[in-house]
Amino acid sequence: MNIMRPLFLLLLSAAAAVAQPIGLGIKGGLPMHDFLNAAKSQNFRFDSTTNRYIVGPSVELRLPHGLGIELDVLYRHFGYSSIGSLGAIANTVTDARTSASAWEFPLVGKYKFHKGLVSPYVEAGVSWDRLSGLTQAVKTTVANVTNSMSTSKPPELNKETTRGFVMGVGVDIKAIVIHITPEIRYTRWGAKHFIDPGGLLNSNQNQGEFLVGFKF
């Protein structure tokens, strides 16, 4: 009997948690910062391109008392290029083109200040970011002779996966059966994906995003 009671309470709690409404939908928006910081020197130059979108599925467990837990899977694409001469060898030129995708997995706890058609909320949690499809195509020209190669491990790569702290504010707008959630989210990453040995390219550890979610 002493064993059955705690077991019964545990099962009852689990059932209550599962019974809570679950919101499923999609979240997308715009990054407010470039994924990479690029610069140039006298003989070498980096240029970066950050696609101005971020999108993916989202799921939220809506708990009592205005609490909630949300998990997103957000996708973005970026790239960078570099061109320049190698050191003092004036007739040697390298031209590299790099592209990759980044998958962001933020897991946040949410608190809504009141229930209604319009509910402001705050959120905080952790996020993981992982690179995929990383490819660098390099052309090296020496005395008008060009050689090509490709690699998935460019010299600028520091970490394929990093983790960070997330915080944000937003508004939950209930429109019939759909929850529309515009928000501003900030992430501080713990490490950089890319660090150029020459100091001309590095990842931005501060990330701001304007996101809008649509959940049923």
Number of strands: 13
Beta-strand content bin: over 45%
SS element count, helices: 1
Order of helices and strands: HEEEEEEEEEEEEE
CATH C-level class: Mainly Beta
- Looking at the structure, the CATH topology is Porin
Q: Which segments are poorly predicted (pLDDT under 50) over 5 or more consecutive residues?
A: 14-19
The side-by-side strand order for the widest beta sheet comes to: 1-4-5-7-8-10-11-13
Judging by the overall fold, what is the CATH architecture?
Beta Barrel
Whole-angstrom Rg: 23 Å
Shape: elongated
Question: In the residues, how many domains can be counted?
Answer: 1
Gap between N and C termini, in Å?
42 Å
**Quick one: biggest sheet?**
8 strands, antiparallel, barrel
Q: What number is the mean pLDDT?
A: 89
Class by alpha and beta content: mainly beta
The share of residues in helices is: under 10%
Keywords:
Porin; 13 strands; 1 helix; elongated; mainly beta; eight-stranded antiparallel β-barrel; 216 residues; two-stranded antiparallel ribbon
Q: Could you walk me through the main structural features you see in this protein, from its secondary elements to its overall organization?
A:
With 216 residues, the chain is mainly beta. The protein has a single domain (24-215), classed as Porin, CATH 2.40.160. The protein has one helix spanning 4-19; strands at residues 22-31, 36-38, 44-50, 54-62, 67-72, 74-86, 89-112, 118-142, 145-151, 161-175, 178-189, 201-203, 206-215. The strands form two sheets. Strands 1-4-5-7-8-10-11-13 form an eight-stranded antiparallel barrel. Strands 2-12 form a two-stranded antiparallel sheet. Strand 7 and strand 8 (118-142) form a beta hairpin. The radius of gyration is 23 Å and the shape is elongated. It starts with a helix and ends with a strand.
